[in-house]
Design brief:
By secondary structure, the chain is α+β, with helices and mostly antiparallel strands. The protein contains six helices and eight strands; from the N terminus they run ββββββααββαααα. Strand 7 and strand 8 form a beta hairpin.
């Protein structure tokens, strides 16, 4: 990601919302709460976190949402209604994935159904193969149980060994380099942080999940720094 000097937007995850409209199925929101259509059908990245049954304040009141966090060229959060077809097909697909697959880049695709329905399909971007789910029995899904199972799989299970997926690690390392430069840290500051949090001196010693966690932690520090800068300017 290119670093733009000067004024610009606050570095924070981009929220992507799911809704079937005339010619698109997901969108972002402008500062004026207007739809910014996304005409592409798919988003490819590494899943870093999922939040199920999350209470969110909307213009229609409090609603339950599913938030899927993805690290691509920048962090994204795909937000969908908890009881939506999209969320259910997303959870069913994630439940079918192995731990090894969840540590690889995945493609999240949208597909319109009848009326306002949007389905989710997950693809392996290397093989182009879709994760097949059995949708006929979706009305009998034990949603809470499925949410807990998928959340535990994604948020709790750590991969013990450093994988040989050097291409993926190179992409994530490059993204971390960008954030570290924006944060203004020198190599020694980075090493101290790694030592304190992971008891390791180098990013190369981190396993895949730790590397993603480190990248997101640095991004959150960057957001905090930017917010403090904005608040100090307003106070001045």
């Amino acid at each position: 990601m290119e670093i733009k000097l000067g004024f610009g937007s606050v570095p924070k995850p981009h929220y992507v919302y799911v809704s079937q409209e005339a010619d698109y199925c997901w969108y972002m929101l402008s500062e004026e709460e207007k739809h910014i259509p996304i005409y592409d059908k798919a988003l490819t990245g590494v899943i870093t976190k999922i939040e199920c049954n999350k209470t969110v304040e909307t213009k229609f009141g409090k609603r339950q949402k599913t938030d899927l966090h993805i690290l691509a060229e920048q962090p994204y959060v795909i937000r969908s209604g908890r009881d939506s077809y999209f969320s259910k097909s997303l959870l069913l697909s994630l439940d079918d994935l192995t731990n090894e697959q969840l540590h690889q880049p995945l493609t999240i695709a949208v597909a319109p159904g009848d009326k306002k329905v949007v389905f989710c399909t997950i693809y392996n971007p290397r093989t182009y193969q879709a994760i097949k789910i059995y949708w006929d029995d979706h009305n009998e899904i034990e949603l809470q149980s499925l949410e807990q199972k998928v959340s535990h799989k994604i948020n709790q299970i750590q991969k013990p060994e450093i994988s040989q997926n050097t291409e993926l690690r190179t992409i994530i390392m490059a993204q971390t380099d960008t954030y570290l430069k924006q944060l203004g840290w020198n190599p020694e500051q980075g090493r101290r942080y790694l030592q304190q949090k992971y008891s390791k001196r180098s990013r190369r010693e981190l396993n895949d999940r730790e590397l993603v966690d480190f990248t997101m932690a640095i991004f959150e520090l960057l957001c905090t720094q930017e917010n403090r800068f904005v608040m100090s300017n307003l106070a001045g």
